[in-house]
Amino acid sequence: MSADHSSQDDISAIVVSYYTGAILEKCLKALDDDEAVTEIILVDNGNPDGDIERATARLHVPIKILSGHGNIGFAAACNRAAAIATGDFLLIINPDAIIPKGGAARLLSDSRGLDRPWLMGAMLHGPDGKEQQGSRRAELTPWRAIFEAAKLSRLAPAVFPPFNLHREPPPQGLAKMPTLSGACLFLPTVNYHAIGGMDEGYFLHVEDIDFCKRFCDAGGAVWFNPHVVVTHEKGASDAPMREVEAHKTRGLIRYFNTHFQQSWPAPVRWMLAKLLWFAFALKTVGRR
After folding, report:
1. CB of 212 within 8 A of CB of 179?
2. CA–CA separation, 235 vs 116, rounded Å?
């Protein structure tokens, strides 16, 4: 990868929607109101008849809609959108995430002067105004996954380092952060393509963790921006909870097999996979 030296300020916003509901219109309206966003690419992975038309009816920013392909997953959808993006920068944002007025412009201005390939994310707040889990994260290792699954990081974070860092005081300015949430990612388009985009082996969840790790491993810097606060209404999609958790579990296993093949022998990774599926069963028993 190389640092971005473009003098252009064009931002292509990418939104992937799957049975998102009414919040999609609010997400797109917020992007439409941001003067730095020059186009919106909406990937329709599946929505009720009329939802996309209603959500895009009053937009002023040029919009491209990709549809008819069915539910291809988040990573593949982002890659399809990035392939047709004309902006010098990509803003990948969840359909249930509302960027504040001027938020995209602030991400862009705060990136000026960064001398390494960079990836930036915003602070995520829930509707209650509190920072969300996943807003900023450490590097995900098998040990951290075990600590999180066993709730040990909650009981003794000094002994069992947590993966999610939202309980720690937020930084006052830009801060390097190993892992960000895919609910809001901002980076030069050239650098998205330089690492091959998102790994389409992930269908839903964990692709953002993998993307950040590959970005760092390729020499890039991942930055957390506390000055841009995005309201993220989790769970807006109508996807069944068990299905979502199953995709997450498969994603975690893929991530550990991809990035920890040398340091964690196959039998140990096999045992970790069994533990993750056991945690999945405990979490989803009796749920649809």
Report:
1. yes
2. 35
Q: What is the pLDDT of residue 7?
A: 52
Q: How far apart are CA 175 and CA 135, in angstroms?
A: 13
Which pair of structure tokens corresponds to residue 47?
């929505």
> In Å, what is the CA distance from 71 to each residue of 67, 160, 188?
9, 38, 26
Provide Rg for the chain, Cα atoms: 18
Which regions in the chain score pLDDT beneath 70? 2-7, 235-238, 286-288
Domain 11-238 superfamily per CATH: Spore Coat Polysaccharide Biosynthesis Protein SpsA; Chain A (3.90.550.10)
Nearest alpha carbon to residue 188 among 64, 2, 30, 34: 2
Tokens of 84: 């047709």
Report pLDDT digits (tens) over 199-252: 999 999 999 999 999 999 999 999 999 999 999 997 666 678 899 999 999 999
Work out the number of other CB atoms within 10 angstroms of the CB of residue 239.
16
Structural domain boundaries in the chain? 11-238, 240-288
pLDDT reported for residue 151 = 84
